[in-house]
């Protein structure tokens, strides 16, 4: 019995088999246990000697089982480690990394610059009432300036906003005559044929400041500071008189061309300057229509094309790159 039991322990190949062997010999109904039970049938004289022998076999067997158990555990662990080992010389798995779209990045930069100057960021709907897009911006029905912005109409009174200026009127209405200092970035839409510099959907950001004693010098200071922070301190700016129905006087701001330093090249069409935004002092009628007393309050507003700002910053010469989602283009901005 002893030899048979020891052999069974030796041959057990798994912990399961070992445990079955232990039960077969040492368990409650195991062979060795049965043997001890039958001791009563022996002559009293023989009992001590037989008992001693059986117990020593029992101890021996228990030791063998626990030794084997340890062995099997180590073996299993070694196998597991071998199975799960990592070959550090294999090439890594590559996966595509997403990145911030260059236009989103420019919007963030513009927001950072203006928030740093105390502006808040406001928002408005893309599908807009004719009233906010045109009338409240001092362009009544049949006003010739409406032709400057060829419009997608949805109904007679509802349209896709042609600029972010309607957010001016909405913000003024909601502030109910209190001072305003906001920028309003977002999409705008015009019925243009798409080409290198036109897109029927594009982005602008509007800016609007209204308070007591706001003057043209505030406009110039704010926008000059913006140009320096966006393009660098070495860039020069100039303001030219211009016309927008919702401002008086109106202006456009140019920055000096980075490509030629202002001497004239193909980028700036030999002028040395690149136009980046429209601006002006808020027209008294615009203030009045949205609930401000033009005798007490003045303000300035500006609007810039975000794609244009981005094109100048990154040296992109075709606006369509921003909308085609060509990964070869977008991957160049992964580090933004
Ligand atoms: N809304 C004008 C445009 O789209 C830009 C502008 C905004 C000009 C505010 C002056 C003041 O062309």
From TrEMBL:
Keyword Nucleotide-binding: yes
SUPFAM superfamilies, per the entry: Class II aaRS and biotin synthetases, tRNA-binding arm
Keywords (A to Z) from UniProt: Aminoacyl-tRNA synthetase, ATP-binding, Cytoplasm, Ligase, Magnesium, Metal-binding, Nucleotide-binding, Protein biosynthesis
Localization: Cytoplasm
Residue ranges occupied by any Aminoacyl-transfer RNA synthetases class-II family profile domain in the UniProt entry: 104-332
Record-listed E.C. numbers: 6.1.1.20
Chief subcellular location: cytoplasm
Similarity section: Belongs to the class-II aminoacyl-tRNA synthetase family. Phe-tRNA synthetase alpha subunit type 1 subfamily.
Molecular function per GO: ATP binding; catalytic activity, acting on a protein; magnesium ion binding; phenylalanine-tRNA ligase activity; transferase activity; tRNA binding
Reactions that this protein is recorded to catalyse: tRNA(Phe) + L-phenylalanine + ATP = L-phenylalanyl-tRNA(Phe) + AMP + diphosphate + H(+)
Native organism: Novibacillus thermophilus
Cofactor binding note of this UniProt entry: Binds 2 magnesium ions per tetramer.
GO cellular component terms, semicolon-separated: cytoplasm
Catalytic EC class: ligase
Protein name: Phenylalanine--tRNA ligase alpha subunit
